[in-house]
Write a structure and sequence with these properties.
Helices cover 17% and strands 32% of the residues. By secondary structure, the protein is of the alpha+beta class. The strands form four sheets. Strands 15, 16, 17, 18, 19, 20 and 21 form a seven-stranded antiparallel sheet that branches. Strands 1-2-3-6-5-4 form a six-stranded antiparallel beta barrel. It starts with 31 loop residues before the first strand and ends with a strand.
Length: 348
């Protein structure tokens, strides 16, 4: 989103027409839309279609923003043009397509009008876009198995916290890895992408009420947002802390019924692997092999994963994992995979 400023005092604004903005929050899948633009340089072109989906995230277009998906033809030259509803209200700004040929394949994306308005106002009033920052790294989206393993009430979904950076707003407010954030200022959050968008569009320094589930129990806290920067979001490296695993008991072994072989993570022994894959953890169990037909494989655990906790018990030895596995029918595993913190639901 860009804002053009015209400083020429003699510029004739008399015949400029402004399209009315609608609320993208009210857009429904299936409603008809019109895309305006200049595809391939052909000005004043329009195409007709329907809304295929809303809240499309994780498209590798940008870190912030859920997009409106439409089958209205969007081609090179349409970017920046409005996406209109049938009342002529702007509900989005055409921005990208998914296509192998470079031409419209019926899968186009528009920035929602509410996001366009918010970004434009910040650019006009402040000259830049300031983004709120919590200080959490999010795990994968929730599914039924994961929700059950976390003892969430039926139908509850949210943003699963994979890791909390030290000395960040979230850490100071008591947010922990494994928490599931479900509301921000009373507004429901159903996924990590929604949380990123909601917080990212808030002003740094603002205080927000956050509701979350921990161990199946709903809790709440107030967080004073920080300022998002690329450096803050990158996360710290793994160095600087004591290598807890190097002296741990039970260096390697297998948990037979789970179908996984592990060994205690050691920066001295596994330094090359840690550096190559950006592993940040200083302790845990490194998975060396997984039986293809095992419960661990069905849960998505792979060789190279570092198992950190099982049912909230820190895994410092193979015995720790074996004990948790033998004593529980349902095991929630927190793991690190190539610098990303995830969860797996392992059932016996």
């Amino acid at each position: 989103v860009a804002v053009v400023q015209i400083k020429d005092a003699k510029f004739n604004r008399k015949n400029l027409i402004q399209l009315p903005f609608g609320s993208s929050d009210n857009v429904k899948v299936g409603e008809f839309v019109i895309a305006l633009g200049a595809p391939f340089g052909l000005e004043f072109s329009q195409s007709f279609g329907a809304v295929s989906a809303t809240s499309r995230g994780n498209l590798n277009i940008t870190n912030l923003g859920n997009f409106i998906q439409t089958d209205a033809a969007i081609n090179p030259g349409n970017s920046g043009g409005p996406l209109l509803d049938m009342q002529g209200n702007v509900i989005g700004m055409n921005t990208a397509i998914f296509s192998r040929s470079g031409s419209s394949a019926g899968i186009g994306f528009a920035v929602p009008s509410n996001l366009v308005r918010e970004v434009a106002l910040q650019l006009i009033n402040k000259g830049k876009v300031a983004r709120g920052y919590l200080g959490v790294r999010l795990a994968q989206d929730m599914d039924d198995d994961l929700a059950s393993a976390m003892n969430l009430p039926k139908g509850i979904r949210g943003a699963l916290v994979g890791n909390v950076e030290k000395n960040t707003p979230a850490a100071k407010a008591g947010i922990e890895s494994g928490d599931v954030i479900t509301e921000v200022n009373g507004r429901a959050v159903h996924s990590g992408q929604e949380l990123s968008n909601t917080v990212g569009l808030m002003q740094p320094g603002s205080k927000v009420a956050v509701a979350f589930f921990r161990g199946g129990v709903k809790k709440s806290t107030t967080i004073s947002l920080g300022t998002y920067t690329a450096a803050a979001n990158a996360g710290p490296g793994g160095g600087g802390e004591e290598d807890e695993a190097s002296g741990a008991q039970g260096g390697k072994g297998s948990v037979g019924e789970a179908g996984v072989k592990v060994e205690v993570l050691s920066r001295a022994k596994h330094g090359e692997f840690i550096q190559q894959y950006g592993i940040e953890s200083n302790h845990g169990l490194l998975v060396t092999d997984v039986d293809p037909s095992s419960k661990a494989r069905a849960a998505g655990i792979r060789p190279g994963d570092v198992l950190l906790k099982a049912n909230n018990v820190e895994l410092k030895s193979v015995k720790d994992f074996a004990n948790v596995f033998s004593q529980n029918k349902k095991i929630l595993i927190q793991l690190e995979r190539r610098g990303t913190f995830l969860f797996a639901s392992l059932r016996k």
